[in-house]
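REQUEST ID: PR-0412
SUBMITTED BY: lab tech R.K.
PRIORITY: routine
TASK: structure prediction, single protein chain
INPUT:
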Amino acid sequence: MADRALVIVVASGAAWEPAVLARLGEHPAIVVLKRCVDVDDLLAAATAGQADAAVLGLDSPGLDRSAVDLLRKHGVRPVAIAPGGATLDGGRLRAARIGITRVVPEDDLDAVPGAVLEDESPETVVRVPRPGVPPPPPTGPRSAGRVVAVWGPAGAPGRTTLAAALAAESARRRRRTVLVDADPYGGAVAQQLGVLDEVSGLLSAARLAAAGQLEERFGSVQRGLDDRLSVVTGLPRGDRFAEVRPGTVEHLLEVARAQAEVVVDTGFSLEDDPGSEYGTRPGRNHLTLAALEVADVVVAVGGADPVALSRLARGLVELREVVGGRPVHVVVNRMRPTLGWSERDVAGMVGSFARPAGLYFLPDDQPTVDRALVAGRTLAELGDSPVARAVARVADGLGWGVEGVATPRTAGRGRRR
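STATUS: complete
OUTPUT:
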């Protein structure tokens, strides 16, 4: 039990507010520090570092996983007031999904002071990974798949093309696969694969995650291309990145990994925004950083020309600082004899500044890539080609076995052009 607790109250005009304030005020070990008008006011007060606990309505607008995570970051224990009676179980379920472990029903307000003063043990706290902080080690049953993040430096090295090709190759090998577009500068997966749905799967996932419903409604944020491959489409415009709050990408990828192999198309920048530490507005690159933090394997792609290779070299050094010891496979895209050097030459150059888990080369097969792009199809759907065979070798290196390989598909079930 704590000796003394400074409490913030957020009621948004709820009927229980006067009774809670009276009970807190009567307790000798509790001081009501502030009454906040809404969740944004609460988060601003929490950043001051003075409060120990927050008593708030479970239905307060804006109360979601990222808000709870920010409270805990500043040492504030959330205590939720939920409707009693038959709806209490549903309230406790939603509270658990957004990370609140202390729930007091409206018909038992005498328990509020005790809930405020009771310390939370580390085992009871629901922790949400944050950008820049490694997620806790997985526990429980082994996941159904892995998260493969496709990253590449600036200059359009072919991130989206490779991510879509790898996801299609995984599905061709009879693996349930989800392709996630997490590019914070505006997703291109939907356009590349001819998905005409106007609703962004990533923004839909963000809304469901905030409501604690993403796991049970995960199917609604996907668009099926066939019986094994589905897509979570990205941002319709780059300026809407702020609608994806911290913790959303991590939660989305964990849910997807429990059901399938996951391939993520990320952005290019690895810079964190220090301003995101002082409020709920995330930095622009938090989508990329979050995907890399969750990823089991990273595939870094760069071009084969001198400028692209220089960018790849610098990027791999920065990437290693983000992903630590997790395996990084390097793909050199658009390799062509007119450049004047061989694969051996490029491999020696890459090996001088990085020790990748695997090094692969994709040929400059522009006619095949153009046909796939114009038709809104994956490389696997176009049949055999030099670039498709090269992508298959990357899939082999990632450990996706070749047993039971299906013939290339010619039709999908999604709404495609």
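NOTES: Residues 306-323 form the longest helix (18 residues).
REVIEWED BY: pending
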